Amino acid sequence: MSTLSCTDIVKDYPGTRALDHVSASFESGKINALLGKNGSGKSTLCKIFAGAETATSGEFFLDGTPLKFKTPIDASANGIVLVYQETSLVPSLTVMENIFMGRLPKKPNGMVDWKRMQAETERLLAVMDVKIHPKAKVQHLPMWKRQVVEICKALSQNPKVLILDEPTSALAKAEVEKLFSAIRKVKENDVIIIYISHKLAEIHEIADTVTVLRDAKFIGTKGIREIDNAGLIAMMFGQTQMRKRPEDVIPLKEVAMEVKGLTREGWYEDVSFKLYRGEVLGIAGVLGSGRTELLGGIFGSDPADSGSVIVDGREYVHRTPAIMKHAGLGLTPEDRKTTGLILKHSIESNLCYAGMKRTTINGWIESRKKRKEMAIRQVEALQIKLSSISAKASSMSGGNQQKVVVGNWLNNDPRIMIYDEPTRGIDVNAKQQVFEIMWDQAKKGNSSIFVSTELEELPGVCNRILVLRGGKICEELTSEQISSMTTNDLYTLCMGGKSGE
Q: How many CA atoms does the CB half-sphere of 346 hold within 13 Å?
């Protein structure tokens, strides 16, 4: 049995302490879950293990040998590999080219040994017990298979420690089960696995132990059979309580927006529905149902072949983000890091892009004072944690980045907000704050459309849910129906069955 341990790890950044004398250990032959709310320090700890960050003080050990890395290459050479949440694969290359990128096996004459590369790829895929052709282009693989390729890429380096950061954040339920099966195969090879996730339900399915950090400190380690969800939440947040939709979040009878016959061939067909003022409307559907493409079609960020969107009685046939923004809409995209934020720009700038005209004098000259006031207003209203408003957006935790994406649009005072996976990769507390934003907006008469892969979130948040299956709306669930449904009922409807099956 191998052990990765750390003693009194401290990590300081300007103005904040990310890790405060953390001591913990992780054993091989187990899947060791590492939990904590956004900003708790779990990602920082794993980056120190993987050589992407250096501890301010403290030590860590692999099988009793003290280690200290300057780069991820040093860590990899010592058997520690971190697989990040966002895949680092090149879509246009083959599976085997991605796995051995930068380390292509060579023949004695210096030429690439393609046969050996294919054989090694087949061996790694056999370890994962997944059938993928080594010469398949990554761009043609579903997300769960891309995650498997990422893990094979890590395994090709013969790791003693494999760290997985939110590996299921973009996967549907059936794909998660396949990935879990592959991860269990890796566990059998005496690899130390550290598994980071915010999805409590899957922790009980995949993990053997749970280690929790809170506010940069080590809280404890438990066997998974020793603790339930309530206990995990208490460890992560202290005593906290999840709120459900307040009773006074009641839609008005006035229509805020109507979608009529919206169609994009191959993605969604003849989609029509009404959104009411003060309503939180959920759209439920499994991956591939056309949810993200439909939202893009409404907002004008993705093309639609036909159909229209009516806002405040005005029909929009030809839509662009600029046109729909002017009509009072906002869209928080699914991929906050690529399309929701400019990570290398300041937090202040990212909070003001949607409402840039509001930061000017007479619509032309930018006022630094107005921009700072707008940014600080959302920092305070959304309780965004940051070291400085001038720090880069990349310096923030996932949950706080998501709040910046939302705050950016709120600074433009939209009457209709479209949220595409706003809770992806953020902790329970940050999710609750996103929901509170929707409800507060509803009380002001503004409307929201909410899409989430985690279908269990929708009933507690939404007034009404539309079920999208195969690009068509097949069910409309009222508030009364939602209140009596289970999560399994909703999954069943999304997958083509009937409630109760």
A: 12
